[in-house]
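queue> holo job accepted (5'-deoxyadenosine)
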Amino acid sequence: MSEKNPYKYNGDTLILENITDNNTNKSVYIESYGCAMNFSDSEIVASILSKNGYKTSDDMYNADLILVNTCSIREKAELTVRKRLEKFNKVRKTNTNVKVGVLGCMAERLKHKFLEEEKIVDMVVGPDAYKDLPNLLEEIEDGKSAVNVILSKDETYGDITPTRINSNGVNAFISITRGCDNMCTFCVVPFTRGRERSRDPQSIIKELNDLSEKGFKEITLLGQNVDSYLWYGGGLKKDFSKASEIQKASSINFAKLLEMCALTQPKMRIRFSTSNPQDMSIEVIKIMAKYENICNYIHLPVQSGSDNVLKAMNRQHTRKEYLELVENIFKIIPDCSISHDMISGFPDESEDDHKQTLSLMKKVKYSFGYMFKYSERPGTLAAKKLEDNVDEKTKSRRLSEIVDLQQKHSLFRSKQFIGKTVEVLIEKESKKSSSHWAGRNQQNATVVFPKKKFNVGDFVNVKVNDCTSATLVGEATGYSKNN
Ligand code: 5AD
Ligand code: SF4
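queue> job finished
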């Protein structure tokens, strides 16, 4: 490692002492795709690079480094990235010295193959290897290519303060777990992001306080499976059984962490995502109900309403268990909104299985949904063991039936707010009108209303008088008590 590198890196631990910003005036252009975790990771990358003299830039034609943080969840996501790489190749015609690096899940999935398949790529870095970026950059500056796709059992980036790129100064992500141990048969995530591990709660609270000081008003605790959060001094979730009795007794689960966050910053709104049905406890729902600043919204993917399909997907819950959980949520938090992820056309999905999905949706009446056609991912258990045998036309037809039903339910849920006053945190100008603000209420519904005297970051009360399936429309009546 050369002298100019401000990080001390001993192979698996980054030592943060003696860091001095070296002002090399280099610029990095970062594009992110996929889930919130990827966007959050890009902020970690920006922070690491800033210590190495890189400023973020939105001008790819003059940047020294282009990074693309990639997603592998569906084939379409990977195709999007390949298209962007074609674009970056064109940029190279004028910006001849620029280096191109691929980060994230596609980097992890394809590893060295990326360099062969996409000749324009100089550097391939997996999600657990970002602290090695300063060293990898040195290698590519010497004209070599560089790859680090080692997955870690303890990396959480808890010691890095993210640089909030593209931030509105109001909402921020705090990542609390990395990886996933669920092994849903369709999902590439356990292979690209490794085993599940939780971040030190002290570093989470420190980041929360730091965001509050900087004026942020709402945070989202992020993880592939937040409800499975478990801190017992570090290490993998699956190794918890090997922890000492003292470690076990003083461990912190998600309900405790959520409560700590709510109590530490009572004026900030707290959200979290994503919840897995089998890990969501009644304790968590009760903590949500107890603290006003924890938003009444749960993203609770189900993937299918059929027990046959859930089993083939290796989901750790049945339809009945899922519906019981939903019932408990509504019992404890009657005005909670719930959203889902759903997949149409999983291998062997019959017409009856699909009908079960529609019937489950009718029972829950989700407020929102993220709906996808099944996309076979190389290396997953489904790809190895199950034939992708639902034809494209059937997948599409089933998906549109799911989407149409969701539209109806979203409208139904939106209409419940008409005539009511909701608290909205103003996030940005409405896309459709420069004289309107847009923000969200606790239940994650987008609300638009005339700007009047209010500003981005204000908590305001809005009387809802109209709606579509996606948006509530209203009139601000004044600041809310949380302002
Ligand atoms: N095909 C389609 N959708 C998928 N998802 C994950 N893997 C696949 C796949 N192979 C969806 C799931 C998950 C969301 C993040 O992406 O619904 O909850
Ligand atoms: Fe993938 Fe399942 Fe983990 Fe979600 S819970 S990331 S769908 S394996």
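queue> The CA atoms of residues 72 and 78 lie 6 Å apart.
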